[in-house]
From TrEMBL:
A cellular-component GO term for this protein: plasma membrane
Keywords (A to Z) from UniProt: Membrane, Transmembrane, Transmembrane helix
Coiled coil: none
Protein name: Purine-cytosine permease
Biological source species: Zunongwangia atlantica 22II14-10F7
GO molecular-function terms, A-Z: cytosine transmembrane transporter activity
Membrane-spanning segments: 62-83, 110-133, 153-171, 183-203, 228-247, 268-288, 311-332, 353-373, 379-400, 421-437, 443-462
Length: 473
């Protein structure tokens, strides 16, 4: 095992169990190598097997996909470096403790509930991903792009078994999850690279122009999908992990970093997972679209399935099935564990194991419904849109609070358990921009940044209005 992997295990153990209500001491700070290994493994996972093909279903052009992903992921890295890592190394608190100091315990409970439920839905999508691979040897009918309900008894049984196994392992604790993920990550990355190479051979690609022409000028979106332009790809890839960077969830990680410059290590995961892996997965789908089966489906006016299991199996055989199972597993397992921690903050008397089992049960039920995976582009956009504005509260207080004349960590210093300035800033920003998205059919990622900025500005204004002039000691 490499030094980076060893350091990563130590890091993840500490994130899950130590210094949860205090600053991380200097003696426990980690070098940039710890974060390099963690992010490289975390972002080449089960979601990538679905997201890549889904980009093709939107009829995106080569320029919009390749350049849009390049620049959008760059913005994500910059957000981690200059916002999350900057604040994380300044205060060295977990996200939850940092928020509690600003919002109060009651309001943080609402946030934990929303966070936990969304984590369960994401984990459910990854259980779906693994199920498409397990179902290949059983000749199971794969879910279609437009499916929302389970399509067979075989599907239900496979999802329930996978969900049960993942939930039990997650309940054993994050150290077990981290050890497994460390060993699996290189296999998953290798599978993406091999899938990409095999797909290029099958597509008869001999030059960069041949590669470019796979997408060309784009096409009409598949039935049930919307047309993606450069701005769709750019903004979606920037905010795919909005909850983690501008939403400040990764404060819990970067509080262990020696310097803010450790934020640059996110580029390892982003450009391996959210660039190479997405494009490799899209190439898998491009190969499948040339098959008689896919052409017949398209001719009938339907969209061919983006089920990752059969796509990977057709490219690299049994190794593809194993890689998809592992990729879904390594994403779902820590996600269920994190959901359990969020629920435990609501019911602190419950053991970690039991709340994790509850989270796993919810995730497994969600995994029965293919819509969470088949509509992953939309779900990830919604996930970031809901949680990201809360991060603006932390960012705006840190960078502008003193200049604006508001008290930092107001809930802690005033004793309030429900900071109404935070609540109303989030409700108004979320409500207004979600209404705009629904009413005027605006792509949700287009309004994530405006909602984030609005929430931060409103927080400053409301805090100025609502905070007491004097705070009792």
């Amino acid at each position: 095992m490499s030094q980076a992997q060893i350091e990563e295990e130590v890091l993840t153990e500490e994130v899950s169990g130590e210094f949860e209500r205090e600053r991380v001491p200097e003696s426990k700070l980690k070098s940039w190598k710890s974060f390099l290994g963690m992010y490289a493994g975390e972002h080449a996972a089960g979601t990538e097997f679905v997201i890549g093909p889904l980009f093709l279903t939107t009829g995106v052009s080569a320029f919009d996909l390749i350049i849009g992903l390049l620049l959008g992921n760059l913005m994500a890295v910059l957000s981690w470096r200059f916002l999350t890592a900057e604040i994380g190394t300044k205060f060295r608190y977990t996200l939850y403790y940092h928020l509690e100091k600003i919002c109060g315990k009651r309001l943080v409970t609402v946030y934990n509930l929303a966070n936990g439920i969304l984590f369960c839905f994401l984990a459910g999508a990854m259980i779906t991903v693994s199920a498409t691979a397990v179902g290949v040897p059983f000749d199971m009918e794969m879910p279609k792009l437009t499916d929302t309900m389970p399509n067979s008894a075989t599907w239900i049984i496979i999802v329930l078994v996978i969900g049960a196994v993942i939930s039990v392992i997650a309940a054993k604790g994050y150290s077990t999850v981290a050890k497994a993920a460390n060993w699996m990550s290189p296999i998953i990355v290798a599978a993406f690279v091999i899938c990409g190479i095999v797909s290029l051979v099958n597509l008869d690609v001999h030059s960069f122009s041949d590669f470019w022409n796979i997408w060309g000028e784009g096409s009409e979106p598949f039935p049930g999908q919307i047309k993606y332009t450069f701005w769709h790809v750019f903004l979606w890839s920037w905010f795919a992990n909005a909850a983690m960077h501008i939403g400040m969830s990764d404060l819990s990680v970067f509080r262990f970093a020696k310097k803010p410059s450790s934020g640059w290590t996110t580029a390892a995961g982003i450009y391996i997972g959210h660039y190479i892996a997405w494009i490799a997965a899209a190439l898998l789908y491009a190969v499948y679209l040339k098959s008689p089966e896919a052409q017949a489906i398209l001719a009938s006016g339907e969209a061919p399935s983006v089920a990752p299991g059969p796509l990977a199996y057709n490219a690299i055989g049994v190794f593809g099935i194993i890689a998809v199972i592992l990729a879904g597993w390594t994403t779902a397992n820590p996600t269920i564990y994190r959901a359990g921690l969020a629920f435990q903050a609501i019911i602190p008397k419950a053991s970690t194991a039991w709340v994790t089992i509850i989270a796993g049960t919810v995730a497994t039920i969600a995994g029965l419904f293919p819509a969470f995976a088949m509509k992953l582009l939309g779900f990830v956009a919604l996930y970031g849109f809901i949680l990201a504005p809360i991060g603006a509260i932390i960012v705006f207080e840190y960078f502008f609070g003193k200049k604006f004349g508001i008290q930092s960590f107001y809930a802690e210093k005033s004793g309030t358990k429900f900071n109404q300035a935070v609540f109303w800033a989030w409700v108004i920003s979320f409500g207004v921009f979600y209404f705009i998205s629904i009413q005027f059919d605006v792509f949700l990622s287009f309004v994530t940044l405006p909602a984030w900025l609005c929430c931060g500005i409103l927080y400053l204004v409301f805090s100025k209005m609502m905070q007491k002039k004097t705070i009792p000691s």
